[in-house]
Amino acid sequence: VGAYGSGGLACSAEAARAADEHDELASARQLFALPDTMIYLDGNSLGALPVQVGPAVTDLVDRQWGQQLITSWNVNDWWRLPARVGDRIGRLIGAAAGQVMCGDSTSVQLFQALVAACRMRPGRGTILTDADGFPTDQYLADAVAELLELKVVRLHPGELAAHLSDDVAVVSLSQVDYRTGELFDAAAITEAVHAAGALMVWDLCHSAGALPVELDAIQADFAVGCSYKYLNGGPGAPGYIYIAARHLDAAVLPLTGWHGHRSPFQLSQRYSPAPSIERARIGTPPVLSMAALDAALTVFDQVSLAAIRRKSLALTDLVIEFARTRLAGFGVEVATPLPHDRRGSQVSLRMPAAYEVCQELIARGVIGDFREPDLLRLGFTPLYLSYADVYEAMDRLAEVLADGSYADGRYANRTVVT
Ligand SMILES: Cc1ncc(COP(=O)(O)O)c(C=O)c1O
To answer: Is 154 exposed, middle or buried (0-12, 13-18, 19+ CB in 10 A)?
Structure first.
């Protein structure tokens, strides 16, 4: 490890195999069911299937639902599942127990967090968000601003200092840019936002499970995220919201579903929020997919995020080194920042015909994805990727670029999901 990039050693199949021999995470591969013939570089979109998930879902369906039916809300404690899974996620994002609730989608949770945060800063008229942020983050900032009669200012996170003022209520940013993989300094940004008297909402979709996140330590206010990427919860797995303990009483969430009531089974006619993180519940949770997520998260009981981060940086160093030395001749540029402290767990390669190249790469067994307008986006999940896999994937990319058949029109009709 450390042999690539800054170390300047050979970027070769032999060096990759040697790195695998010292890989402290090598055994984690057994925790996943992945096709042997596929090299999967899309765990930043949909994580691979942890082997524990199948039996957990089968048990939920056959025994808990099939045999115990409605009694499962008590006997199998379905009622507390969202908070239990929330606490499990909390351990991965530096949140002490009682501050994370699992459920609904990232988009819904972002709406909850933005409205609650803006309401805590009455008299301030601006939400700041990333001009290159994921669309849902931008759309929801606009929607919340319209609802609360605020305005949205879009910026690059690097320009934040120039935009912070006593009119800013909330700053909403993703910790890692979904397109380029740029990692922002969450501690410094949160501190600057607080110094301006505003509150910070972090979107952790591309950081949770990929690198250590320390929400309590950086005094984050609110955070949201999904669980189907690096947390491997499965397609459509529920999102989550973090509300710092110090804000729990003051956080007035807009979606007042009955599960968030202080006493749901009193079935009273007026809403009164639970005094704890339970107020972040909305309606009946998706028990099947939450049980799958619960099982998927057990993977993280056996590995450390520090080890994941070390290997992630070594893998992305390898990819960057390969791209700079072997792919530059094909017009490939590395769009991901080179410094480790500014890089998430993906590498985005800018190139002509990125969509077609991506499709041809998939046809040759290497799964990545394409992001408009010209990015081949490759995600690196250290839990199930070896150095040899990653070297092999890059070698196949070099082959695809060299033979050029991707450009013969075979990918003229684009798929719905790119
Ligand atoms: C930064 C970011 N936020 C949010 C989402 C998705 O939100 P949702 O889970 O509501 O579909 C994504 C999806 O890729 C994302 O990258």
So the answer is: middle
